[in-house]
């Protein structure tokens, strides 16, 4: 019965954490969940409380800083031309052995085919395979 109570306490802390968002209640929820597992072995209530306090403190001091560091890390937006690899483009000017032009990401790019022996006609859709300086290396979609 004690395991069920600790599990309900853990669920309550986790739900309250959704409103707070500072990871404090989540560490208490992890401590209560750990205690729920220990309570399955019919240990005395004093031992359960000690396990709850010890595990909550361990989660607080060792897990919370790592989670905060990961959460506070700013997301990096890749603005380099390499970010365009894999995007679809429309051929504006035939791409032959001498190159051609494609339109993607709202701009015109010089392009060459991945297979230089193939000619890709205007109006076709291609996928950007690589960016080689100012030239998009493309391949024709099937």
TrEMBL record:
Keywords tagged on the record:
Membrane, Transmembrane, Transmembrane helix
Query: What is its membrane topology?
Result: Multi-pass membrane protein
Q: Which residues cross the membrane?
A: 44-63
Does the UniProt entry include the keyword Membrane?
yes
The molecule here is called: NfeD family protein
Q: What is its main location?
A: membrane
Localization, per the record, is: Membrane
Residue ranges occupied by any NfeD-like C-terminal domain in the UniProt entry: 83-140
Q: Which GO terms describe its cellular component?
A: plasma membrane
């Amino acid at each position: 019965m004690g395991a069920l109570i600790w599990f309900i306490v853990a669920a309550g802390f986790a739900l309250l954490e959704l409103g707070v968002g500072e990871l404090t209640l989540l560490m208490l929820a992890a401590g209560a969940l750990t205690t729920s597992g220990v309570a399955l072995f019919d240990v005395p209530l004093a031992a359960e409380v000690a396990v709850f306090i010890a595990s909550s403190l361990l989660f607080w001091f060792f897990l919370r800083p790592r989670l905060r560091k990961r959460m506070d890390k700013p997301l990096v937006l890749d603005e380099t031309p390499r970010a365009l690899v894999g995007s679809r483009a429309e051929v504006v000017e035939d791409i032959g052995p001498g190159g051609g032009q494609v339109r993607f990401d709202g701009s015109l790019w010089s392009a060459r085919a991945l297979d230089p022996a193939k000619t890709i006609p205007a109006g076709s859709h291609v996928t950007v395979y690589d960016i080689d300086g100012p030239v998009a290396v493309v391949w024709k979609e099937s």
